[in-house]
């Protein structure tokens, strides 16, 4: 069974998946399985991190896939700012350049 695909809105979702796997990412117009590697964490870029980077990094479209033969388990830690905090790229860290439109600031409560 294939779950809905989505983008994470938080900053950096950190995923530990078991050896059953089941994480797919959408790259180059097709779905790719993320092969589980023992002891390795998967770190996705979320929407907040994409905004902090001024669009240099983008949130990854992904989905969960479960099978009827083996139970899948995963553990996810979501890191995001408090709802009242202003999220915007740091002026001194992210130069404005062609192809990277400056992201205006927003409060997390309006983004999530």
Task: Explain how this protein is built.
This protein is mainly β and 112 residues long. Helix content is 9%, strand content 23%. The protein contains two helices and eight strands, in the order ββββαββββα. The strands form three sheets. A three-stranded antiparallel β-sheet has the order 4-1-6, with no helix packed on it. Strands 3-2-5 form a three-stranded antiparallel β-sheet, with no helix packed on it. The chain has a two-stranded antiparallel sheet with strand order 7-8. The protein is elongated and about 50 Å long.
Q: What is the compact description of this entry?
A:
Helix content is 9%, strand content 23%.
Key traits:
IPNS-like_FE2OG_OXY, Fe2OG dioxygenase domain-containing protein, Oxoglu/Fe-dep_dioxygenase_dom, 3-stranded antiparallel sheet, Iron_ascorbate_oxido_reductase, mainly beta, 112 residues
Which helices and strands appear, and what pairs or packs with what?
Elements: E1 14-17, E2 23-27, E3 30-33, E4 42-43, H1 47-52, E5 62-64, E6 74-77, E7 86-87, E8 106-107, H2 108-111
SSE ordering: EEEEHEEEEH
How much strand?
Answer: 15-25%
Mean pLDDT comes to 85
Instruction: Give unreliable regions as ranges.
Output: none
Rg for CA atoms = 16 Å
Structural class: mainly beta
Shape: elongated
Please give the order of strands in the largest beta sheet.
4-1-6
Major sheet size, sense and barrel closure: 3 strands, antiparallel
Number of helices: 2
Number of E strands: 8
